[in-house]
Design a protein that fits this description.
Largest sheet: none
Number of domains: 3
Helix content: over 70%
Oligomer: single chain
Strand content: under 5%
Order of helices and strands: HHHHHHHHHHHHHHHHHHHHHH
Distance between the termini: 16 Å
Length: 516
């Protein structure tokens, strides 16, 4: 993406003036829509299981989890396309188009008649949502110049901090007082306001000649990853990894991804610049981030489902109960960000991972009667660790790059995080589904919590035993997530433990694209 600051306009004030705040407002609205939609759907997964199935025969969790996986895969796909399209068509025009695409996808999601249709419409929604954050950073950078970008990053950080707190609560409330359709329909009025606001507030487009885009790389990576994850997610349905639907999809996906790796070293401007892996610190950071994101974001989906399906909580109560995790992240993220410039990253991230290990270990002990104060405390501790891990990793990785490498490095980091989230969601949902299917009583017991007629037909002792089996399934799945976080400590301990000199200003000012 062309985020070169070129020559900063003469007389540009040092403070954040009204004109810049007006433009920042446009970007924040877009960021809120996109980030909230990642977390707002989490509490709706149990609802999707019964709405598109039935209380007695719910759709497999690994299937409905694709409504999250498809969205994050679409985000990963569109991130590298955004910079090329912004140069070619102009940021204002593309930003308004992205909002329109996101809103269209949202409305279509609300009309979904099957889980397959919902997953397809979530892809469309993700294609629009994935462009909003990178474009927003470009718009804000051009409006403020590099001298004020740090303060504007703090403004843009607001939706990043509030998303994990408000998303589950908003989603739970809308499902409870209205219906699941409104977690998508609410984007329509907000999106319309954002489009009108962008049309009035953003400066006129100035499209520039753009570098060539690696369409072949995109055609190899995106279908390859989707096919591979589809094969993994099909294991519970097929009952075995040897089923043709499983191994053929995984084999084709792996072949396409291998072909992408070989192809990526040929074009001048590849979709993902794998040459950057020559930078040791960047490589270690990406490995650390991948393992962390897969474990943390994969496990993130399990708690609201446990609260609704095993404890019988409403969607609103489930959203409120997991809010402490976002509060924990909100407390440590600014603190960790301020420490990155003072302390080596290798002394910050391992501490955050230890907090996550402590909190997640508690979730490996879940039962059908675990006290809520215990669960809330565990989630809060995990949130403290998340806030001290994610943004320092991004900052450290970008500090090791020269300015002309930052745009490509940001793309690599963002896509790595989205792919890791997709892999984590797919793996954890498959493991949970397999564990639940291992018990004949778990499914009927969970269904009985939401169906009084069914509960009357099942002996009380069978319901108690089934709910204990179901809670054990969640705990066993969390053991895998905990082991992945423990494994993350290995590359994390290889991160720089001495002060790093930044190379961002070695040749020119190019601000990074923020995490999405």
């Amino acid at each position: 993406m062309s985020t070169d600051s070129k020559v900063e306009p003469a007389g540009l004030p040092d403070h954040i003036d009204r004109a810049v705040l007006k433009i920042a407002g446009v970007v924040v609205i877009g960021a809120i829509m996109s980030i909230l939609d990642i977390t707002v759907v989490n509490v709706a997964l149990p609802t999707f299981q019964t709405v598109f199935g039935s209380p007695a025969h719910p759709i497999a969790y690994s299937t409905v989890a694709w409504s999250v996986t498809a969205y994050t895969l679409a985000l990963a796909t569109v991130i590298p396309l955004t910079g090329w399209a912004a140069d070619r068509f102009g940021t204002k025009r593309l930003y308004m188009t992205a909002i329109a695409l996101f809103v269209t996808g949202s409305v279509l999601c609300a009309t979904a008649w099957s889980i397959g249709a919902l997953i397809g419409f979530r892809v469309l929604q993700g294609l629009g949502g994935g462009m909003l954050m990178p474009l927003g950073m470009t718009i804000m950078t051009r409006a403020a110049g590099p001298r004020r970008i740090g303060r504007l990053m703090a403004i843009l950080g607001v939706p990043m901090l509030l998303g994990p707190i408000l998303g589950p609560i908003l989603g739970g409330w809308l499902i409870q007082v209205a219906s699941w359709h409104w977690i998508f329909l609410i984007n329509a009025p907000i999106g319309l306001i954002a489009i009108l606001y962008a049309w009035r507030a953003l400066p006129r487009d100035t499209p520039e000649p753009s570098e060539s885009f690696d369409f072949l790389g995109m055609a190899l990576m995106s279908p390859g990853l989707a096919l591979f994850l589809f094969g993994v997610s099909s294991i519970p349905t097929e009952g075995s990894a040897s089923a043709p639907r499983v191994w053929i999809s995984m084999l084709l996906g792996a072949a396409l991804m291998v072909a992408f790796v070989f192809h990526s070293f040929r074009p001048e401007h590849p979709l993902l610049d794998l040459r950057l892996f020559r930078n040791r610190n960047l490589t270690i950071t990406i490995i650390t981030m991948f393992l962390f994101a897969a474990a943390f974001f994969g496990g993130l989906l399990l708690v609201p489902t446990y609260l609704q399906e095993v404890r019988g909580e409403s969607t609103l109560h489930a959203g409120l109960l997991i809010a402490p995790q976002g509060i924990g992240a909100m407390l440590t993220m600014p603190l960790a960000g301020s420490q990155v410039d003072k302390r080596p990253i290798g002394r910050i991230v391992p501490v955050g991972l230890v907090f996550i290990l402590i909190g997640m270990f508690g979730l490996t002990q879940l039962t059908a009667t675990t006290p809520y104060p215990v669960i809330i405390t565990e989630l809060f501790v995990m949130g403290l660790g998340m806030g001290a891990t994610m943004m320092p990793l991004f900052t450290s990785a970008l500090k090791t790059l020269k300015a002309h490498e930052v745009a490509r490095g940001s793309t690599l980091l963002n896509i790595n995080q989205q792919i890791a989230s997709s892999v984590g969601v797919a793996v954890m949902s498959v493991l949970l589904t397999n564990h639940l299917q291992a018990s004949k009583l778990a499914g009927p017991a969970m269904a009985s919590l939401h169906d009084p007629a069914l509960a009357a037909k099942i002996p009380a002792a069978a319901i108690v035993k089934g709910l204990e089996d179901a809670a054990r399934a969640f705990a066993q799945t969390y053991w895998v997530a905990w082991a992945m976080v423990l494994l993350t400590l290995i590359p994390a301990l290889m991160l720089p433990r001495k002060h790093e000199e930044t190379h961002l200003l070695d040749d020119e000012d190019i601000p990074p694209v923020t995490i999405h």
